[in-house]
Design a protein that fits this description.
The chain is an alpha+beta fold and 169 residues long. The protein is built from 3 helices and 10 strands. An 8-stranded antiparallel β-sheet has the order 1-2-3-4-10-7-6-5, with no helix packed on it. The chain has a two-stranded antiparallel sheet with strand order 8-9.
Length: 169
């Protein structure tokens, strides 16, 4: 009986303590700055203000922090960024990568809750999905775009931003 309880307890702990398979990033929403630094090292650039923003260019991530110093939003720039970020090539969330197209996002996440064209740049658009417990925002090229001799096709991801989503599916 004790052996069976021990085995049950071990299985329960392993199952309940593992990370969600939908999450592919080394940092999680809610992580402290101390934890972030232990995983990613020091940021390559910091913006102080209402929300601290830290760039981790060598990891391909930008992190936004809440007033308590915990990660509130994660931005993963796509391969068309011109800010010196490495492209994060692993799955980010729900097996989606920044190298995917907006069509793949729609296939895996369904119809977005909103679609907007940028008022500043007519070649950019934004789709937003709410998939519990996340809010996923993908900026994409809404028409072919050329930068530094490379053409990015319509539907190419510019960046993905993940934050906590409340309500929704």
């Amino acid at each position: 009986m004790i052996k069976n309880l021990s085995a049950f307890f071990l299985c329960f702990c392993l199952l309940s303590c593992t990370q969600n398979d939908d999450w592919g990033l080394p940092i999680h929403l809610g992580d402290s700055k101390t934890h972030v630094y232990s995983v990613l090292g020091s940021p390559s650039f910091e913006v102080k203000g209402n929300a601290d923003i830290h760039w981790f260019q060598n990891s391909g991530l930008t992190l936004l922090y809440d007033p308590a110093g915990n990660v509130s939003s994660i931005v993963v720039p796509g391969h068309s960024n011109s800010s010196g970020f490495l492209t994060y090539k692993e799955p980010v969330i729900f097996d989606l990568k920044v190298t995917d197209t907006i069509k793949r996002f729609e296939t895996l996440l369904g119809a977005p809750i909103s679609k907007e064209d940028s008022i500043l740049d007519d070649s950019l658009g934004t789709f937003v999905w709410r998939k519990t417990p996340y809010l996923i925002k993908a900026d994409f090229w809404s028409k072919d775009y050329s930068e530094r001799g490379t053409i990015f096709k319509e539907g190419t991801i510019v960046s993905i931003e993940i934050s906590k989503g409340y309500g929704g599916n």
